Amino acid sequence: MRRLAPVLRQDGADADLISLIKTILAACKEISFRVGQGALSGVLGSTLDENIQGETQKKLDVLANELLKDMILESGLVMAISSEEEESTVAGNPNGQFLVTFDPLDGSSNTDINSLIGTIFSILPAPAKADPADPSIFLQPGTAQIAAGYVLYGPSTMLALTTGKGTRLYTLDKTYGGFLLTQEEVAIPGVTAEFAVNMSNQRHWEAPMQAYIADLLQGKEGPRGKNYNMRWIAAMVGDVHRILCRGGIFAYPRDLKDPKKPDKLRLMYEANPIGFIVEQAGGLCSTGRERMLDVAPEDIHQRVPVILGAKNEVNRIVSYHQEFDACK
Ligand code: AFP
Question: Residues with beta carbon inside 6 Å of ligand 1?
Answer without folding.
Answer: 55, 106-109, 198, 234-236, 252, 264-265
